[in-house]
Amino acid sequence: MIYVSANIGLALQNNYAALMVLRCLQSSGSSGTIALGSAVVADVSTRAQRGKYIGYASMGVTLGPALGPIIGGLLNQFLGWRSIFWFLTVFAAISFVVILITMPETARNVVGNGSVPPPRWQLSLTQYFRQRRHMPHQSTVGVETVQVGGKRTNPFASLRIAARKEAGLILWYGSLLYAGYFAVLSTLSPQLAARYGFNSLRVGLCYLPLGIGSLTSRWTVGRILDKNFHRLAHVHGIPIIHNRQQDISSFPVEVARLQITLPLVYGSCLAIVAYSWVMEYKTSLVGPLIMLFFVGHLVTGAFTSLSTLIVDMNKDAPATAVAANNLFRCLMGAGAAAIANPLIDRIGIGWTGTFIALLWFAFSPSLWAVR
Questions:
Q1: pLDDT at 245 over 70
Q2: Which of 97, 150, 253, 302 is deepest in the core (most CB within 10 A)?
Q3: How far apart are CA 94 and CA 86, in angstroms?
Q4: pTM for the full model?
């Protein structure tokens, strides 16, 4: 509701200060849903299934910025910039109604493994009317699965997670990866306009390979993560019981995830170098578009793997862990967006992409340290 209200305000405002304040409000309303989405995944999936589901839950983080310019370019070209915020208002309102009607409560300190009915105010409308129609008695089945002794709410819990040695290294490297990715996203529009003379509609369409690359990584990397988890479980003699949260304290979950992450990171280094130099030499448009697909596929695959690992390592506070992830990578992404264009003006896009790849490569030992 905060997000919907902010979009209405943005569509109606005529003042730059109001634009800035409302954009902050818009961000605060939308960013919480990312943490909540990953928390729901942790509630309803086991570690053996989590790679695939985290991939879908985090899709908006990378697919949104890739598809947004396409939709925004179309709306801006034909209806003006205010139509973008009206579109977001309608889209978010429809999403809100769908969630209100269908989304069940999944928090394990409320419904356990899903068999314990939640309080009435936490029912979706579908559940509420079904419950009224059947008038069931309060079920005691599965009560023992309800998690008890929940921690008190702490606004600094995300920072506490970042202070842990392993989690801090993962958050740091994930933020660096996101900063480089966002440097590509934020500079693509002006680079395409300057080098190829494209209008906002054509620029938006050039984001499509990034979006397709992000989407395909959900089907490949997520499944590979789950298969590698099963493979290592078999090696260590740990039987996987589907639909059961198992105690796997002796299982090297960091190895299971980072065996997939590290090749994706080094592949991302090669992809961003190739993208930046084909842009530098202003080759046929096919070259940058193909490399954008690989950047989207490999970098978002690495995001998925690191996001899965941070949730695995904080199974009792998955939303807090993802919130910490958002906090650090968005700060780094904002910094990258601020310096990327001036850096390109100074040293060229080819050397800028090479510099990003060198940073990713130089700090990759932090992931080896976790492994």
A1: no
A2: 302
A3: 12
A4: 0.78
For residue 26, pLDDT over 90 is answered with: yes
Q: What is the mean pLDDT of residues 262-288?
A: 92
Q: Residue 326: which pLDDT band, with cuts at 50, 70 and 90?
A: confident
CA distances from 102 to 52, 115, 266, 296 (A): 22, 17, 41, 32
Which residue, 240, 370, 315, 357, is CA-closest to 43?
A: 315
Q: Would you say 197 and 183 are in contact if contact means Cβ atoms under 8 Å apart? A: no
Judge whether 296 and 59 are in contact, CB under 8 Å: no
Q: Check pLDDT > 80 for residue 85.
A: yes
Pair of tokens at residue 321: 């862990």
Q: Rounded mean pLDDT of the chain? A: 84
Q: What secondary structure does DSSP assign to 130-154, as a single string?
A: HHHHH-PPPP-TTGGGS--SPPPP-
Residue 234 pLDDT greater than 60, yes or no: yes
Contact present, 360 and 180 (Cβ < 8 Å): yes
pLDDT digits (tens, 9 = 90+) for 113-160: 777 788 888 888 888 887 777 665 555 556 666 766 555 666 677 788
Q: Please check whether residue 289 is in contact with residue 206, taking contact to mean a CB–CB distance below 8 angstroms.
A: yes
Report the alpha-carbon distance of residue 51 to residue 227 in Å, rounded: 9
User: Taking Cα atoms as reference points, which of 69, 67, 3, 348 lies closest to residue 201?
Assistant: 69
Our CA dihedral for 293, 294, 295, 299, rounded to 10 degrees, sits at 120
How many residues in the chain? 371
User: 276-290 burial by CB neighbour count: b if 16+ within 10 A, else e?
Assistant: bbbbbeeeeeebbbb
Residues in CB range of 238: below 8 A, 6 or more apart: 246, 248, 250, 251
User: What local confidence, expressed as pLDDT, does residue 137 receive?
Assistant: 54
Contacts 24+ apart (CB under 8 A), 149-152: 150/109, 151/316, 151/317
